[in-house]
Amino acid sequence: MLEFFINVDKAIFHFFNTTTANPIFDFLMPIITNQNIWAVPILFIVFYLAIKGGRRGQICVVILIVSVGLADYTSASILKPFFQRLRPSHELTEGIRVLMGKGGKYGFVSSHAANMFAAAVVFSYFYERYNKVFFTIATMIAFSRVYVGVHYPADIIFGGLLGYGLSWAVLSLWVIIKMRELKRGAKWILY
Q1: Each residue of 117-144: pLDDT tens digit?
Q2: Residues 121/166, Cβ–Cβ less than 8 Å
Q3: 2-21 burial by CB neighbour count: b if 16+ within 10 A, else e?
Q4: Distance of alpha carbon 140 from its chain centroid, rounded?
């Protein structure tokens, strides 16, 4: 049964990595997936929210750091070594397109997907009117990992679910703290 799902995963990977290949995506997807390109805008947003975003922005930044840090650590340091599923760029040597570096040896679960979906959940919680933008960006980055040849679809799906779930766990803890502090009459949690 597991082998069936692995074969389906590989077939879907081949579809998105080779069948949908086109010059526009060949140009855009390596840019979208490159974390070095995203690092500066993300750091700018974090600093802006921490300095100019008021209490809402400051609390958002703290929860964002905890959520993304937890998602990144869990995906990269626990799940990838545990499952040891080779990335397609390491396992499949023929018939795939690798549009950038091969990435680390193991790919399950995708840290990019986990981190971006964790961030999308946190940003959507605090800035709900932009939630479609946040989740569109997270989905584009996750898809780009398959398109450029460094992740299977299951890697990004389960990475996204990991980030989504962990960030909601952190947000739930925040809500518990917030409710407790409201009952005590604390003002620091108001935004």
Answers
A1: 999 999 999 999 999 999 999 999 999 9
A2: no
A3: eeeeeeebbeebeebbeeee
A4: 10
Question: Three-state SS for 86?
Answer: strand
pLDDT at position 131 is 95
Coil, helix or strand for 106? strand
Place of tokens 């390491």: 90
Show me where the domains of the chain are located: 17-184
Tokens 């479609």 -> residue: 132
Overall fold of domain 17-184: Vanadium-containing Chloroperoxidase; domain 2 (1.10.606)
- As a whole number of angstroms, the distance between CA 91 and CA 70 comes to 28
Label residue 180 exposed, middle or buried (CB < 10 Å: 0-12, 13-18, 19+).
exposed
How much of the chain is helix, strand and coil, in % rounded to 5? Answer: 80, 0, 20
